[in-house]
Amino acid sequence: MSDKPNKLIENGKRLDGRNLDELRPIKMEVGVLKRADGSCYMELGGNKAIAAVYGPREVHPRHLQEATQVIIRYRYDMASFSVKERKRPGPDRRSIEISKVSREALAPVILKEYFPRSVIDIFVEILQADAGTRTVGINASSVALADAGIPMRGIVSSCAVGKVDGEIVLDLTGQEDNYGDADMPIAMTQDGKITLLQMDGNLTKEEFARAIELAKKGCKQIYEVQRSALISKYEGVSNV
Amino acid sequence: MSEDIIAEIKRDYIYNLAKKGKRVDGRAFDEYRSIEVETRLINNAEGSAKVKIGNTQVVVGVKIQPGKPFPDTPGQGAIITNAEFAPIASPSFEPGPPDENATELARVVDRGVRESGAIDLAKLCITEGENIWMVFIDVYVLDHDGNLVDASALGAIAALLTTKLPNVRYGLGTEDVPLPISDLPVAITAADIDGEILLDPSLDEELIASTLITIITGKDGSLAGIQKSGMGPLTFDQIFHITDLAYKRAKDIREKYLEIVDDQIGEEGKKD
Q1: Chain B interface mutation, best of A86, A96, A99, highest count of B Cβ atoms under 10 Å
Q2: What pLDDT, in 10s, does the model give residues A68-89?
Q3: Which CATH class is domain B14-271?
Q4: Which domains does chain A have, with CATH numbers?
Q5: Can you give the pTM of this predicted structure?
Q6: Does A125 contact chain B (CB < 8 Å)?
Q7: What does the alpha-carbon distance between residue B179 and residue B195 come to, in Å, rounded to a whole number?
Q8: Which residues in chain A have Cβ-Cβ distances shorter than 8 Å to B88?
Q9: Which of A33, A81, A119, A125 to mutate to test binding with chain B, by most B CBs within 10 Å of its CB?
Q10: What is the ipTM of this complex?
Q11: Distance set, CA B174 to CA A186, B126, B131, B243 (Å)
């Protein structure tokens, strides 16, 4: 990582030239894997990730199955080469926590009672990381679930907001996250229900309210990208 | 759920076609599916490549870090190869540490790189007995539709070709220099379906094959590694036949996919 710059925001612009309320460039592609039931590749700035959905399918081990609804499993994993210093492959405390909160971010929109005694597995592989990987994982998973044909009440969209040089900003970079004052990932449904909320750092009550407003704007933009990615795969596919 | 299963009717279909000298996707027995190689896609890795063979997809990332040499080779760098069967790649892959198949894959890829002498390990010594470069080759399988070995081995050497030693980051020099690569090993895998030898087996073909065999050859045509994987026996004639095929195919693949990468690096080197 580079040394701390003097200023992260200058004349209302961030180091990468973005405005305070601007997302990094996004790329999203649906159905990138053949074996998976649903899949989605997403880039957000320097982040590159693939989400795959398998299921609904039989639960192994069987004692995990639930009689009245499908269970959801979510596995967030970072490739060893996704970060500057090689990460040992496999789960660590961080990825276990992220997997848990991400699962809880997506579960509320899935119509779980449709598939009792089954499991929906969501797997996220981070190929390149640059802050905000969990939001990328959730956004890609949400689209992969739709691609797998899982009935849902809506799509979950996620972004991070935070405080950098005293300003509330959208979608922090690695540098802004490291040297900023607060980082707050959020996920929400289109009708404004918050399904993931984490924060570390320091915010006043007033800043927190502003951050939430900004996150809403960010998620709305993400949602439009998710929607058009799905449409571009499925337009022209007939219902018959 | 740990093993892929194949419907009896599909098994018969593939088998009967093979007996007539045909394959489900219309390929000749010695023909590969379409191959795509994309390099330098992971900025955080010192080298990287994504390889597609048909629907099979793997990403290989190379990380280079200084470390302590092994006591028996104080003046040599180290290669550490690992393969992850990410559960995104197949309904039969489960989360967890590498199983015997992932371990076998990693070791076969490692053997190709190591035994062909592609990397001159003596050049990766920083201070003898104390500090060396450790080359981590990490293979991530993204989509499994057969022949992971050839895709991974091709990905590994393509990624290594784009790898630079991170001298600047570790305060060991003023510029990052390309990792010296002196051979381009290529792995060719064949499946035996009741005596018929098919190159680049798809997953369905792998599932009905009695055995698979991988032959890794270097630039000069010498053998750098062999792995027979599966229960079925092979005859001497079959093995010599496969070796001949492997040598020819490896040459094509090397010229078409690796020497291009090599040339690009060369030209870029001149520009710097």
Answers
A1: A86
A2: 999 999 999 999 999 999 999 9
A3: alpha beta
A4: 14-233 (3.30.230.70)
A5: 0.92
A6: yes
A7: 42
A8: 33, 36, 39, 50-52, 123-125
A9: A81
A10: 0.89
A11: 42, 15, 18, 45
